[in-house]
Amino acid sequence: MNFDRHRRLRSSAAMRNLVRETSIAKKDLIYPIFVIEKDDIKNEISSMPGIYQLSLNKLQEELKEAYEAGIRAVMFFGIPNEKDECGTGAFIDDGIIQRATRLSKELYPDMLVLADTCLCEYTDHGHCGLLDDHGHVLNDETLPLLVKTAVSQAKAGADIIAPSNMMDGFVQAIRSGLDEAGFHNIPIMSYGIKYASAFYGPFRDAAESTPGQGDRKGYQMDPANRLEAMRELESDLAEGCDMMIVKPALSYLDIIRDVRNNSNVPVVAYNVSGEYAMTKAAALNGWIDEERVVMEQMISMKRAGADMIITYFAKDICNYLDKGAYS
Ligand code: PBG
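That is the input. Now the predicted structure with PBG docked in place:
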């Protein structure tokens, strides 16, 4: 016989567990939550079954569930009552995210709050920065507003700043802004590798942030490009980012692997809204086994090199893990 017997290591559950290379733990998960400024609302997002727009009183119940399930990191997205051309709602002291952050830190001090630092949910035109007369997003003029947003989020108690608007120089600007305000110890998790993706569709329904005109291709990356991701990575590392997000995740596993191989910072996969919606839709139709498909997707991101995963499935995964089938 002159072939290898690979099946030796697959002979029983205990054997397979012993040689398993990749695993998922609750500590790897970051749970995104949509917080709406209106009162007493729990509004299910039609394209994201199981995910809601929550007003602050309902957020309290959601945080309790998440905390009790074992989640120790949440990320808030805000839906403000008022929007204007420069996204003021993103950086005011009593903005919806600032209030949600204070509430969460008060109720669960040991649960990390990640702040998505962007303007698109707060601008009336839905773009991620200030516009010039031709509808182009202004880079340098937008940076001070992002800095203000990050500082106000840190003041409210955010543990990690996650800038996502894809302006050049945003990591450097936010780092100096945080340092000047005394927040040397607040890390930046950069969404510097963010593709202009159709997979964000359901998020834009949830966050009410679809651009009124045009698209985000002038600042988010072209899905066809791989080397460009390495250039984004290089600048963000040079500018002082502490962790790097790749977004979306499942169609970009090659990019996650590239970031892992070309940097030493923790790598984060953002399992985005469209990925959630597709899986949920198939599961609700009875076409796939939801638990097994979700866990396989999570493992694929970890195997590609992600250290942690931002996912709308976070609570479900905690429940799967509690059943003990994955240890
Ligand atoms: C804010 C932001 C977006 C997402 C995360 N932060 C939307 C966008 O860029 O259009 C998308 C997340 C998801 O689809 O789950 N800029």
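The pocket of PBG is lined by residues 116, 118, 120, 128, 164-165, 200, 203-204, 272-273 (CB under 6 Å).
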